[in-house]
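Fresh eyes needed here. Kindly weigh in on this sequence plus structure tokens:
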Amino acid sequence: MFWRIPVVLSLLPALSAADLPLSQVTLYKHGVAHFERVGELKPGETVRFDFKPDDMNDVLKSLTVTDRGGGRISGVRYDSSDPLDKRLAEFPFRVGQGSSLAAFLDQMKGARIELKLGAGAAAGTIVSARVVRDTDKDRTAEREVLVLLMDSGDIQSFDLGAASAVRLTDPKQQSQLASYLAMLNLTRSRDRRGVTIDATGSGARQLTARYMTPAPVWKSSYRLIFGAAGEPVLEGWAIVDNTSGEDWNNVRLSVVSGKPVSFITKLYEPRYIQRPLAELTENQAVAPVVYQGAMDSVMNKAAQAPRNGRQERDLAEAKLALVAEMAPSSFASTASGRQAGELFEYSFSSPVTVKQGESAMLPFLQQKIGARKLLVYAESYGLHPRDAAELTNNTGKTLDGGPVTVYDAGAYAGEALVETLPMGDKRLISYGVDLGTRITTAFDSSQAVVREIHFRRGVLTTRSAIQETKTYTIKNVDAKAKTLVIEQGQRAGYTLLDRKPTETIPNAYRFEVKLAASGTETFAVREERVFDQTFQITSLTPAVLTSYVQNKALSEAARNQLNQIAGKKREIADNDAAIRRAEEEVASLAQDQSRLRSNIESLNRVSGQQDQVQQYARQLATTETRLAGLRDTQSELRKKKATLDGELNSLMERTEF
């Protein structure tokens, strides 16, 4: 084994680092936290923070430092992103774990060194260093030996075990060794990276550093308490998690509702650019040159239905019907709220302590809120509506989105989720199923009715409307009145006819219906869809045109014009039918001629059949005469068709309504 030698390596002095305690933490909803540190910086001190490697991009993007003592910040340094092995590879020596002093000095061949040996000293240039094993009868001992080239030219061997101190006399080599050991010390924890702040100035100064790092989002949860007396109470709790790597001791804590834009930019890792290779033109060979030849959209505002006297009485009766009151939690909410630009911030007035790896639940709200109980129904719910509450945010604060646990009459009533609710806004939440109310729906559709007819350049355009009705049948089996909100989805192209919704949301209408105790209500919602159709007049039959002529939406002048077109279409249709009949008769006669010629040819080869042949010949002559007449008729019909088509085209060009 190696003897441990009390050798002192003289290194360069290092600056002391000041501690800036954590004073304030602000948590956001988009995955970052803002930290503030404040502390005193004495002359000659630097400030160093340690971060996780993944935090460095955000730190470098957001770090700000303020010197309130009149000094100035001279620079910010931080550990390289390169791994430790790569950074240590830049040094001309290695200090391995458990390695001997001789192994280190052997790497320094040629370096000048001084040894303290008792009362004397020795200096020279390192030739080598090694471990020597001495063996006798009883044991084997190891000692470290250093071989130096002395100034006199002699080469001498020294036992390092006899040396009380070893010193490299070259300041550059001393600095390299100091940097090497400092790097080993600072990167002892492989998951931390250091940021050092250098400041200049005389006297003690107050330094403030602020920065952002990734952090878990804070969560909010609420308790909505309906009691027998007074307005409903809303409690809000903020749930925070400390994964920063250090304790939060008596820090000022704030939580912010909202979603500012945030992103990651790679600032920590060194970025290299591939530079082009440039050479002088005269050093390049001449290459041949190849010459080329010569890109309702506005939503309705929510209708606010005024609350009438009956509604107020219903609400009062519902409150009086509660048989027990659940008291709010016994805590004093010390969080103050303020609008921070487009965001909303809750700041806890008392210092907060959350240890590393712990989480905390902190109250930030406890006050009365505008809320009324009702039922909500959408067709996707099935047979029963949902127990719900309409929350009106009259707290003067923005309520962050989160889960809501509802207590009614001293008992747990259900749970809901609510999105972020700005001041003055209103939102529905549903937390249970009302088994005391049943709802069924029926659907009815009318036949499409043509409301407008237009004609221009041979194109007929109709505007038709179809009406559809959805009827809700609501049975309230409970012996108490209720208020129901029906949510019916909006459909593209459909408009409401009779009813005005209580309010409109981006994809649905909401209708409020009062339900009497132990009664049945029907509620019909009628919608209409208007659509256009276009037809080429040549593709419509006279019968279809006649049906449009009879439509009451036409003016008398338009009716006469369309009637003329329909009449001309009938003439063309009759003429086309005559052409088809003539073509069919010609085809039939041609078949008869072919049959007669075949019979005559067969009989001519048989003796004694001349009479029959003569008879077939007379029939063939008659058929030929009829064919000649039909061809004349076809010619006349085709001429007439051309004339009628021209007349129709001329009529259509003149017609417009």
Remarks:
- The mean pLDDT is 80.
- Residues 219-259+301-435 form one domain.
